[in-house]
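Folds abound. Consider this:
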Amino acid sequence: MDYYESINDLPLVNWWKFNESKDFGHLLKEYRDVDEAKMEHLSAIYTELMDEFTREFGISNHLLAVIEKQIEIALLKTDYVLGEKGNTTLIEVAELELKELVKSVNGMSHNLIKAIIEQKMGFRVDPKVTTVMEYYSYIQLIDGKEN
């Protein structure tokens, strides 16, 4: 498998698509469907990418909200599987909320944030070329935060 090993080379569009869909094919340098065996390996790769992202940029309130929603969904699914107070409607609602959280930062879409970066930095950001590292570094510069 030829996959992205670092946020220094992972294109932003792949990061966005993976985080919206959880489709591990977006972590590959050439998108394709992933079988179960490769999915386990790519899951570990994603964990490494997320660890790298967190080391570099820290954990924002937005990321904490995403993690809390993921935990909520896991608990709802556990309750459902165990036949306790689980409810598929609650799970579906929580998954929709998570999808919306992942799509936005503080209520802003990826495209709006990209437009702000382009306006402030004075150049176009191509999510197919710009890496995750570059994009979030631009956000830090605009926010006036170096750490």
